[in-house]
Amino acid sequence: METRKLGSNGPEVSVEGLGCMGMSEFYGSADEAEARKVIQRALDLGVTFLDTADMYGPFTNEKLVGAAIAGRREEVVLATKFGNVRGENGERLGVRGDAEYVRQCCEDSLRRLGVERIDLYYQHRVDPKVPIEETVGAMAELVEQGKVAHLGLSEAGPETIRRAHATHPIAALQTEFSLWSRDPEEELLPTVRELGIGFVAYSPLGRGFLTGRFRSIEDLPEGDFRRVNPRFEGENFARNLELVERVQEIAAEKGVGAGQLALAWVLAQGEDIVPIPGTKHVEYLEQNVAAAEIELGAEDLRRIDEAAPAGAAAGDRYADMSPVDL
User: Fold this and answer.
1) Dist CA 326 CA 18 (whole Å)
2) SS3 state at 62
3) β-pair partners for 150
4) Which of 114, 125, 305, 308 is 20 to 30 Å apart from 265, CA to CA?
5) Contact (Cβ atoms closer than 8 angstroms) between residue 181 and residue 265
């Protein structure tokens, strides 16, 4: 698999990464043995960029990833995150970005992952109560100590990104970006490109919706968080299905899947963008990896843009979009 460099100062990673969140939580039942197979197959296929976070599970996803890469650590650019606080029983306890919390989270993640260094360490969500300079300053100390190689932010706004980058170079911004989440095109992509920061696109398949596998809400398993996601509810589902059907039509003409076309579109938006589609199944992993070989010409891109223009998706990305970072 080809590689891309995350920004001017970040690591070189495979053009597609692997999001590991759904292997432990949010998307129905978890199968740890199958998840390990997916991660190891990804490495076999040249996927070097693995994404996890302390909150996934909670706390179990890092252990899963660490166990799956044992003996293959040198093949992996390992990214994890801190900031979304959760209790042992899964309760959500807000957001923290104070220096003490940053240091403690890093130690805990290193222990769960079973590694000596995190390659890319993100602040998962910005803490509005703590100056970003304090948070990134504490993260920078981890770099000096050799516990972290590169720093990242997730779902941060342009002004926060600038302040953070002035405190210590930021290698990557991770934000949702796909054919039905094109908001970053307005301000975020221009900002990170100006600063030389890479862009990591999470949910590039629209939480699986853009694959066309879901025809009704009943296709989602019980307990799946998407059942209460605004874009999967009621009239929004029906409207978004129309968008997917337009994408499917173009994909069929090219002899590829709708999800593969959606991934190829993200990859075509710039050499500085790395999508991290997640999956719990080897079959879907292999389909996603194959999307990196799809070439889209100017006419393809024009038709896709016409089928799924910015703002076309119905519903918010999350049920609660506050606080909104600027």
Assistant:
1) 28
2) helix
3) 120
4) 125
5) no
